[in-house]
Write a structure and sequence with these properties.
alpha+beta, 5-stranded mixed β-sheet, 3 helices, ribonucleoprotein, elongated, single chain, about 120 residues, 5 strands, Ribosomal_bS16_dom_sf, Small ribosomal subunit protein bS16, ribosomal protein, S16 Ribosomal Protein, Chain: A, Ribosomal_bS16
Length: about 120
């Protein structure tokens, strides 16, 4: 059985609250889990100490027996100093898509034509 550390959503509509749980990786997101090892409340300020809470020794135990954290939980663990996370780099993330580039080229061409027409008149 592969085990993962992941978020299980609670709270009402537009008021999320997450439990950090150890669950079978095939179980549904809010379904049955093995153990709750922390909480995450994204509505609290980033510097609030109650935003992310872990039971450190249980998290370390589950990581030691091979549980794999999801990306979001890995980020939270890295901020808490429990498990180091390798930095990722996506240099093309902020780059516009092909259609947006085409529109920008068309707009620049129209502006150049308008500038030429104004210069001739």
């Amino acid at each position: 059985m592969s085990v993962s550390l992941r978020l299980s959503r609670g709270g009402s509509k537009k008021r999320p609250y997450y439990k950090i749980v150890v669950a079978n990786s095939r179980a549904p997101r809010d379904g049955k889990y093995l153990e709750q090892v922390g909480t995450y409340n994204p509505l609290l300020a980033k510097d609030d100490e109650n935003r992310v809470r872990f039971v450190d020794d249980r998290v370390r135990y589950w990581l030691g027996v091979g549980a794999q954290p999801t990306d979001r939980v890995a980020r939270l663990l890295d901020k808490q100093g429990i498990k180091e996370r390798a930095a990722t780099s996506n240099p093309s993330k902020g780059e516009p898509g092909k259609k947006a580039k085409d529109r920008a080229e068309e707009k620049a061409a129209k502006a150049a034509e308008a500038a030429e027409a104004a210069a001739e008149a």
